[in-house]
Amino acid sequence: MVGEKNSSAGTVGEIGEKELIRRIAGWLGPVNPPSPEGIGDDCAVFLAAEGSPQLVTVDPVIEGCHFDSSVAPEAVGAKLLKRNISDVAAMGGLPRRAVLSLALSGDTRLDWLRRFFDGLGKVAGRYGVSIVGGDVARKEGPFSAYLTLIGEAAGTRVLTRRGGKIGDWLLVTGTLGGSRAGHHFEFTPRVEEGVWLAAHAGVRSMIDLSDGLAKDLPTLLPPGAQAELEWDELPLSAVLAGTVRDREDGWRHALTDGEDYELLFVLDESHRPQDLIRDWTRRFSCPLTLIGKIVAAPAGEPDAPPIRLPASCPGLVLGSAYEHFRR
Ligand SMILES: [Mg+2]
Description:
Blueprint: H1 12-28, E1 44-47, E2 53-62, H2 73-89, E3 93-104, H3 110-127, E4 130-138, E5 144-153, E6 169-173, H4 183-186, H5 191-198, E7 203-208, H6 213-216, E8 225-229, H7 247-256, E9 263-267, H8 273-283, E10 288-296
Parallel strand pairs: 3-4
Antiparallel strand pairs: 1-2, 2-5, 3-5, 6-9, 6-10, 7-9, 8-10
Helix pairs in contact: 2-3, 2-5
Bound molecules: magnesium ion.
């Protein structure tokens, strides 16, 4: 059986999420095309016979993992769709239609489910998403729901995680580090913002911050590069103000808490970030902040961290960003 002890085979928990995904790609072989059509970005990209590039992504909500009984069912349904919408936003796309797969036990309460669908439906209406089908399976144990979202590029291109070069600027929308104070249910997917950024010729690549800067930012770096951050410019969430011990503690939340669902992107070094921020401010109410740039990693230091640590606190730990399976 899948959970049976067999020390030589190893377990998912021993290798962690990143290595697991690498192995799945290997097991699938040629039926997993190279990213961004295959595994490796916020959405898979494919070209329909004619028209805009299409996007597809899937994300779940699982009881005991993403929510517990203290969370209103409307918020659970809303979050399920919003976290998928955020992945489409990260490619500069517009969400269009979704299918939903539920796995639930026979004693799941109907009033709970009705409220779950109420929350999901309100978000779908707000973002113009049609729920076009799905599946219901019986499974004892915690409630889980998987939503597959299909979107399309608003313009002629989608932004992937690739394209950043040494010298380029790093910018982020909104504020960071507020997820534990409840922001991870209340966030707003940055759809209009993502579409606007994808239409800007200077923006090279983008990701939504679901696992934290420490894990998500490195995926935007080309080989041999490091991110140099302006630590005091990091836009920390106001909810952190009353809870963090010091500056370093605030940075730690921004780096590792995850679930900010803000957009992090790379701007070509030939563009002035101040000009982009000025144009942005005329259009959007959420902040846009220049947080650093991509630099060359120090020569002869193969173990240099992907994010250069602040000189004032070299002990800041980058390795603890949210990683499924590993503890
Ligand atoms: Mg994502």
